[in-house]
Amino acid sequence: MINIARFTHPIKLGVIGLALCLWLDPAAAAVVAVVSSKSQVSTLGKNQVADLFLGKLHSFPNGEPAIPVDQDEASAVRDEFYSRFTGKSAAQIKAHWSKIIFTGRGHPPKTVSNSAEVKRLLAENPNMIGYVEAELVDGSVRVLGLQ
Amino acid sequence: MSPKLIALAWATSTLCASIAQAGTLSPMFSLSGFGTLGVVNADADNADFVGNFFQPNGAGQTRRWSADVDSKLGVQLDARFSDKLSAVVQVVAQHRYDNTYVPQLEWGNVKYQFTPELGVRLGRTVAGPFMQSESRLVGYSNPWVRPPMETYGMLPITNKDGIDVAYQFQLGEATNAVQISYGESSPKLPGGGGIKAKNFFEINNAVEYGATSIHVGYTAFRFDFHTPGLDNLFSGFTQLGDALSMIPGQEAAAAQAHALVDQYQLSNTPYSVVSVGVNYDPGAGFLMAEWSHEQSGAVISNTTAWYISGGYRIGNFTPYLTLAQVRANKPNTSGLSTTGLPALLVPDATALNGGLDAVINAFMFSQKSMSAGVRWDFMRNSALKLQYDQLRTGAGSGGRLSNLQPGFQPGEKINVFSAAVEFVF
């Protein structure tokens, strides 16, 4: 049980408030998972999106192979995507892949340098799945509805 | 390679990683690596705290501070010849049995991926039934400075040569991965000696559902274990038996001496470990627990180990706590009965009995520990960990400590402080 009284000190409240602000930052939540507009897939579970990018799942629910397209490790949109869809930090994602790479079990997704590149690749390949900033969505890609 | 060289490798690797991200040489080959640069202080006066069973010395009585316990560097070359055919070579330099850092081949295998679900590997692959067996050397991928030794010390062998079949499938929203392997392994021991593990069979199954994963592993093999000390002990019993068999009226004692050799020498001895682990890691923190049981024969105690570990992420910091224990059930022996032996042979028999008793105690691994630490992801691809362990070995046991000296007192509290920089590139 959490003892609320322990957290009511003004400084503690300030720290908690700041943490909440960072967590709930509305600008930061504007990353969306996308597939090619040619894809048959329109919705996916958040866990399924996460599993595709973490190498735990290799196909869409309809059986079609899925190819995740990741973004540059230094990009803010990447950190935001993993934070929203997997709840994990950049370091935790790196640790996850270290586990897989150094056992020879697999490789992280192909990486491109920005959202424009993601859209360009997805437009050509209906098997690909990526993520972009919500405001950059255009006719080449479809935003996945989350179940 | 010394810890200094590992430090240099770390500096170089961070540089390399920033120049050529993911170290891609060409579409076919990729180079990556991992490493730990660590120092350990242990206040054991008559024993050494070591990173694994094969290290000849560590922190404690040899030297208070040691960089040898955790420091290591691994380099891996991946080759992808086609969608289905690939190969991995991983070489690891760490403090090894002969007190050097000469790199050893950790993995070296060719994989044929028949379908996205089914892959077969031939060559040197992982050994171990534990939840983190595959990544036990990759410090960066684990929350702690080192996996709990109470559990992971049950099987210090990390690889084997043979065949490994992996099959992964979906169970609703859960993923199930099963891995079956067969092979052999022949690691060398400090002080001249070695282990020869044959008919090395393993099956590991991992189910992952969202943030939860459950792992069940089983390892079984038969092994020979030779060191000059052990070989002398059993040839001593054999010679004593031979001598007694020539003395009229000592046939029974002779038979007993020979029977002790058959019963206790480590030759074609069975060894098996079963392990069940659960990990819950939603991102904000982790909670994991693992229970393992080892069963063997001859001079080796059966042991049961568990650990429970949890951590909570606060920005780039992840403080964690671990409790761990291994308990041993030691084989009973009173050695060779000296009553009725010719007086001339009693001192020999007594010495040999003492030796057998010491060996049985040396193979009785019992200890518990409490650890607290923090991981700080201070820069991309690198983490700093600080960890404090307090451990006590069980009654009559040296636990996972090594290099025990005559003054060693089982059950004494030992404080271990570790600092490690872990990196991947």
What overall form of chain B do the CA principal axes indicate?
A: globular
Overall structural domain count of chain A: 1
Oligomer: heterodimer
CATH top level class name of chain A: Alpha Beta
CATH architecture of chain B: Beta Barrel
The top-level CATH class of chain B is: Mainly Beta
Q: SS-based structural class of chain B?
A: alpha+beta
Number of domains of chain B: 1
Q: Count every beta strand of chain B, where a strand is a DSSP E run of 2 or more residues.
A: 19
Got a strand count of chain A?
A: 7
Strand content of chain B: over 45%
Q: Helical residue percent of chain A?
A: 25-40%
What would your notes on this structure say?
The complex is a heterodimer of chains A (147) and B (425). Chain A has 147 residues and is α/β, with parallel strands linked by helices. Chain A has one domain: Periplasmic binding protein-like II (D-Maltodextrin-Binding Protein, domain 2), CATH 3.40.190. Chain A has five helices and seven strands. In chain A, the strands form two sheets. In chain A, strands 4-3-5-1-6 form a five-stranded mixed sheet. Chain A has a two-stranded parallel sheet with strand order 2-7. Chain B has 425 residues and is α+β, with helices and mostly antiparallel strands. Chain B has a single domain, classed as Porin (Beta Barrel), CATH 2.40.160.10. Chain B starts with a helix and ends with a strand. Chain B is globular and about 75 Å long. Chains A and B meet through helix 2 and helix 4 of A and strand 1, strand 5, strand 6, strand 7 and strand 8 of B.
